[in-house]
Amino acid sequence: MSERVNLDAVRAEALARVERGERNFKLAFFGGIAFEALFLVALLLAADLSNRTHVLILVATVGGYTVVILGILALGAHFSRGVARVLKAVELLKD
Questions:
Q1: What is each CA distance from 26 to 6, 16, 64, 65, in whole angstroms?
Q2: d(CA 34, CA 40)
Q3: Would you say residue 68 lies in a domain?
Q4: What range does the domain containing 73 cover?
Q5: What mean pLDDT do residues 4-16 have?
Q6: Per the domain annotation, does 40 fall within a domain?
Q7: How many independent structural domains does the chain possess?
Q8: Are 10 and 92 within 8 A, CB to CB?
Q9: Share of the chain above pLDDT 90, in %
Q10: Cα–Cα distances in Å, from 36 out to 1, 28, 40, 62, 89?
Q11: pLDDT classification of 87: cutoffs 50, 70, 90
Q12: Is 81 helix (H, G, I), strand (E, B) or coil?
């Protein structure tokens, strides 16, 4: 006993979920950026830049965050490209 499935409704719901997930991701991502920027500002204000150990900690922190942020951006670009391909396939299914 097969039931008729409204494919347009299923597609619309899937796209709505993707958009909702993307919005939540962006909110979390920018919230994390704001929190880490606050942390970095606090580190800069607390550091005694005439002390070489403080400068070393600052350079290590910025270097570590730079690598992590670049990795996250590369992963995000890869994921966005994959999602774009899936959305293009969904659009082609309509025709």
A1: 31, 15, 22, 18
A2: 10
A3: yes
A4: 7-94
A5: 78
A6: yes
A7: 1
A8: no
A9: 23
A10: 56, 12, 6, 11, 37
A11: confident
A12: helix
Tokens in use for 17? 């979920």
Q: CA 46, CA 91: separation in Å to the nearest integer?
A: 53
Q: Which amino acid is at 92?
A: L
What's the pLDDT band for 2 if we cut at 50, 70, 90?
low
Residue 1 lies in a domain: no
The pTM score is 0.60
Position with higher pLDDT, 21 vs 11? 21
DSSP assignment string, 1-65:
-PPP--HHHHHHHHHHHHHHHHHHHHHHHHHHHHHHHHHHHHHHHH--TTSHHHHHHHHHHHHHH
User: Do the domain assignments include residue 2?
Assistant: no
